[in-house]
Amino acid sequence: MTDSRWLSLLGLLAFGFALVFSVIPRVAAQTDGPALIKPLCNPVPTNTNIASLTADQLTNSLPCAERFDTIADPDLDGPHRRFQQGFNFLSWMTFLALNAPASGDPITKPADPTRDTPAKWEKLVNFRPLANVMRSVDRPPTLAEWGKPDVPELCLPKLTDGMVVLHRIEEAFNQPFKTGPLIDQNGKYAIFDILMNQTMFNYIVEKRLFTKALQADQPTDFIVDFPSGANASATPPAGFSKDGQIGAVMLKVSWKILDPVADKDLAGKIHTATALIYTPASEEPKRPATCSDPTKVGLIGFHVGHKTKDRRQWIWTTFEHLQNAPEQRSVDDPKALLPRYFFFDVAHPQGPYNQTPDRPWDPRIEPFPNGFKSQIIRTIPVADDTATMNKAFQARLQGTVWANYMLVSTQWPSNFGCSANIVQNSKAKQPDMTCEPVPTFLANSTLETFTQGMTQLSSSSCMSCHNNATSYQRPAAQSDFTFILEKAQ
Amino acid sequence: MSDFPKTDEAADASADQGEAGRLGRRSVLVQATTALIAASSVSFDKPALADTASDDNALLSFINLSAALTGVPNGSLRPNVDPIDLKREYFKFIRLQKETEPFADLLKLAPAKREALTDAELADIRGKVAAAVKMNDKVKYLTRSITLLWYLGGWYVPSALQAHEQSKGKARPGFQVVSANAYTHGWIWRVAQAHPMGYSDMQFGYWKTTPADLKSFGGPFQ
After folding, report:
1. Chain A partners of B203 at a C-beta cutoff of 8 Å?
2. CB pair distance less than 8 Å for A429 and B216
3. Which residues of chain B does A424 touch, with a Cβ-Cβ cutoff of 8 Å?
């Protein structure tokens, strides 16, 4: 064999090797293993002393549904605090179970500031990005696709194991109701992503709700009703097993691009991932698609919507990094301010606060023009009971990045007679289809930055907002508290 | 129903009752109005209730008094979990208003009971209020202001209501909407099985179907 033939053969082998390994991330399905989140349908009692929670409990306890264990509160306001604590406990256990290391390590394992520790929710075996479900009509999703990557061709050459791919469509940088982008103190856009669990994915695929046309073709009496979760029960209601089940769960997360220099001090204090940021082609202005080089991002916000049998308006959890933004009371008392925040300039603590930047909003142009940086405060303080629970969990998680996150609150439907029986679009009508959310308003300072507040109809309330979600069904109908169906093409 | 004195309109309203003993929207409003016309023999010249540890009991009395005045069940005025908490907002608001001197003694007419009021208890409260109203115009118009507050979410100064009546409707009373929650959660909307202008949490497309039943709106009202 001549040298040139050897070279050709080697080249061919190298090409084949590269081809095989570049394709693996796209086709390799994760079906089991340490990364898989296993729901716990006999949830940890909510009156458990948080300090005594075991590493295994903290790591592997995604509750199938809420439960309440503490004694009735004799206070005039009845069981309000008891329920709120129960829902907040569910939120923390959910947050930890989803963010536990995909490697199978306990979430209590000390942070390694030198490398990413992918979380379970980042694995396709557990959650699938919206962009990989509501695709162009010529690429319908299939049940068999669950767990398999769907990476834009442009990004494939840059993809390595453990990376996340963020699709920077408008919803990924422009907040709900197009209220604007959030710009960090480095002048970079915050990035948002929406994901769903397999229960939601299967429902969308099986009911054929993944394109506008298919939604419009649904029978007029079709009711969008995602499966509900339920705890194990000796006497389960019809349609539920004794073992319980996990219901529909959706996530909306926010990331901050980490600057290697300016954010160096965050190593070991924030959950990181290496991301490829895919920006689709645009028509106006006409620009080609791009895929960034691997970019280090840090998790700053984490919404969970969780539908359960008795909370058919879903349970709404939201977490944030402690350094996102201060509360007003911290601004009023500078001693209470942290040394630095991602979206607040401590050196210039004066307002105006929570302002949308001037247009144009183009995340391809960073840093944001004219030196604009968001100056954000949290307008509704974290409730005392929630803050107490946060401190207990943070103490239990010392040494991990998760000690730097806090639950802002959990919103839940407080009218239990209503919440267990009401299905949107069914004949069981109610004056308030949200079944009286508690708290009435809830916002994540990175995801609903510009709609924080306590003004009816305009301030952020998970349930009140999602109560308005519709699909392309005709006649128009609600879509079970999710905007995901509206994203169909 | 109670032995609370009825006007002719109230008697008509009773006739509107369904077989289940529930009243219609019109009759509820008439019943509420009737409660305002009654009078009492309690002394109303004592100092206003202080802010003390007994506030919880005073609040319970206020809720039960309000139930008797409005016809709305006390459990609906004080839901098990109450994120809106109008009861507390109104309670505090009234105590800060002028011309509400009889309020503290008015509260004494209703028990500080957490459980649902029985028909007999409702009748008892209404009887006492009716006697008090007969004795004292300030009580009469204060109870009317309280009722309007729950129904409309607005505060009508008692003397303005009196002037309105004495002028045979020519002196139109002004009012203050207490808060956005007070407006959106006024009981007038629920009794009418409707929603306030500009705000609704009802099901998409509700306008083309019949409303939910009164129980869903916090009834039955009596």
Report:
1. 424-425, 429-430, 433, 478
2. yes
3. 203-204
Are the Cβ atoms of A438 and B83 closer than 8 angstroms?
Answer: yes
Handedness of CA A462, A420, A484, A192 (dihedral sign): positive
CA–CA–CA angle B166, B169, B173 (5° rounding): 90
Per CB-CB distance under 8 Å, the chain A contacts of B81 are 77-80, 83, 414-415, 436, 438
Nearest Cα of chain B lies from the Cα of A323 at a distance, in angstroms, of: 29
Distances (CA, A) of A70 to A54, A84, A196, A390: 20, 11, 31, 18
Q: Would you state the structure tokens that stand for residue A150, as one six-digit string?
A: 């769907």
Position A364: which residue type?
A: R
> In which residue are the tokens 């095989």 written?
A20
CA distances from B131 to B39, B40, B103 (A): 3, 2, 15
Question: In the structure, what pLDDT confidence band is assigned to residue B3 with cuts at 50, 70 and 90?
Answer: very low
Q: Which residues contact A19 (CB under 8 A, 6 or more apart)?
A: none
Whether this prediction's pTM lies above 0.95 is answered by no
Token pair for A332:
């009023």
Across A111-181, the runs of DSSP E, i.e. the strands, are 127-129, 164-167
Predicted ipTM of the assembly: 0.81
Angle (CA) A225 A226 A232, round 5°: 115
The predicted-structure confidence for B25-80, as pLDDT tens digits, reads as follows 444 444 443 333 333 334 443 334 444 447 889 999 999 999 999 999 999 999 98
Nearest residue of chain A to residue B85 (CA atoms)? A77
Q: By CA distance, what is B216's nearest residue in A?
A: A430
Peptide bond preceding A475: is omega within 30 degrees of 0, i.e. cis?
Answer: yes
Measured CA to CA, the distance from residue A167 to residue A368 in angstroms comes to 19
* A434: nearest CA partner in chain B: B201
- For residue B200, give both structure tokens: 């609704």
3-state secondary structure of A437: strand
Interface touch A424/B205, C-beta < 8 Å = no
The sign of the CA dihedral A35, A36, A41, A42 is: negative
